[in-house]
Amino acid sequence: MTALIEMRDIVKTFNIGTPAEITILHGCDVTVEEGEFVSVIGASGSGKSTLMNIIGLLDRPTSGTYSLAGTDVLGISDDQLARFRSQKIGFVFQNFNLIGRIDALRNVEMPMMYAGVPARERQERARELLELVGMGDRTGHLPNELSGGQKQRVAIARSLANSPDLLLADEPTGALDSATGRLVMDLFHELHRDHGMTIMFITHNPELAEETGRIITMRDGLIA
């Protein structure tokens, strides 16, 4: 197997040089192979959100090394990092983060528009992705016309728009009832099983974590 994520001795300190200086991550090592379905669990304050922001290239560590898909992502500029993130990582958030004034189809198109994909091509792919997640009959609906589970499925379709190497899902069932959360979790299993997606799944729910291939537990800024 090939490592998609290789992180070594990741340290993250905030407010450096001030009385409020605090270290959240104390030297974390993380390896995720291509095609894995990995969950990350930990109590509030354990450091998992900080770690996931670094994995998602939304923040940089204070020290350590991080290779994603064979690229030293800590050695490139912020502009290069933003482009690399849009190509390599798809995000699914707890609160969906859909744009309320545009319909499901255009929400899925948005990442491709920023990536410079021609209009006809991105529209066709957006339709295909909405079909994939069972939302092919809701392409023209605005987010406020969709249920929570439907919004999350649109968000998952959007996360796949640029064919990312990594799907990073941050509490994707947290705002859903148990039955709807079950449907969303089943969709993640389908993407992993049938499409070979590498998925990192952040959750407070140990039962959902047990369904994944491997569990990474965070405790006091370390991998427990």
Automatic annotation (TrEMBL):
Gene3D superfamilies: P-loop containing nucleotide triphosphate hydrolases. It holds the Pfam family ABC_tran. One of its GO terms (molecular function) is ATP binding. PROSITE patterns: ABC_TRANSPORTER_1 (PS00211), ABC_TRANSPORTER_2 (PS50893). Residues 5-224 form the ABC transporter domain. This is ABC-type transporter, ATPase component. Keywords: ATP-binding, Nucleotide-binding, Transport. One of its GO terms (cellular component) is plasma membrane. SUPFAM superfamilies: P-loop containing nucleoside triphosphate hydrolases.
